[in-house]
Amino acid sequence: MQPCRPTRPPGWTPFTGTSAGVVPAIAQDATTGRVLMMAWMNREALLETARTGRAVYWSRSRNRLWRKGEESGNVQHVHELRTDCDRDVILLAIEQVGGVACHTGRESCFFRRLDGAPGLEVVTSGTGRHASPALGECRPGACRPHRPVWRQGASS
Questions:
Q1: Is this model's pTM higher than 0.70 or not?
Q2: pLDDT band at 80 (very low <50, low <70, confident <90, very high)
């Protein structure tokens, strides 16, 4: 699969109304749909990502642009950029070079499950018929009808 060069729709401004000038950016495997990581983007990071087709984020700890893979070699080729309905979250469909997105050396940063964690209560969601199958949610006839959803602050 060849990476594309995403373009920015004319007049699109996802950072309007964000106090810090950054928005969450979720990197998702373009082939499998698996969520690989979450980082932050400012306007400059988004524009460079769109221009180059390689993921660029804003590092809050370094206070500078972070070109994913600049040190590790684990670059992310961007196939598609999307935003949510409120334009305050970016979704990147990417090809992860080297198979490692997480700084721990794992494929995904989301390797921890919260099953039975103290202070969290399991509640049941709806069927999620239109939800992402990559997140293990349901398509008609494809999987179980309910997924646990965690609510913070509940008693154990």
A1: no
A2: very high
Distances (CA, A) of 133 to 2, 80, 100, 143, 147: 23, 18, 22, 9, 12
Pairing type for strands 90-96 and 23-29 reads: parallel
Residue with tokens 């913070």: 152
d(CA 87, CA 121): 30
Q: What are phi and psi of 25, to 5 degrees?
A: -130, 125
Spatial CA neighbour of 93 closest among 10, 141, 36, 143: 36
For residues 129 and 139, is the Cβ–Cβ distance under 8 A? yes
How far apart are alpha carbons 14 and 90 in whole angstroms? 8
Q: Which residues of 91-107 are buried (b: 16+ CB within 10 A; e: fewer)?
A: bbbbbbbeebbeeeeeb
DSSP bridge pairs for 37: 27
pLDDT at 52: 97
Largest CA distance in the chain: 49
